[in-house]
Write a structure and sequence with these properties.
63% helix, single chain, 4 helices
């Protein structure tokens, strides 16, 4: 058991593993930078899309009082 953890510790802190990790992180950063540069810019087409429905306020005013417990009653 001790030998197992010792081997893992040695590999994790070895120069070979540290260099591979560093190179891998550099490659990922380069790939991300390239992808970000090649992103297309989309036009905004959301103007005047949302329409407010004012009839809901009128319905609330017409109805009588509301109660949460009335929702739980069986009809």
């Amino acid at each position: 058991m001790i030998l197992f953890f010792f081997n893992i510790f040695n590999y994790y802190f070895s120069d070979k593993n540290i260099k591979k990790t560093y190179i891998n992180r550099l490659d990922i950063n380069k790939i991300l930078e390239n992808k970000i540069l090649n992103l297309p810019v989309l036009n905004n087409d959301t103007n005047n899309v949302i329409e407010f429905n004012s009839t809901f306020n009128e319905e609330i005013k017409k109805n009588e009082k509301r109660s949460f417990w009335d929702l739980l009653k069986s009809k």
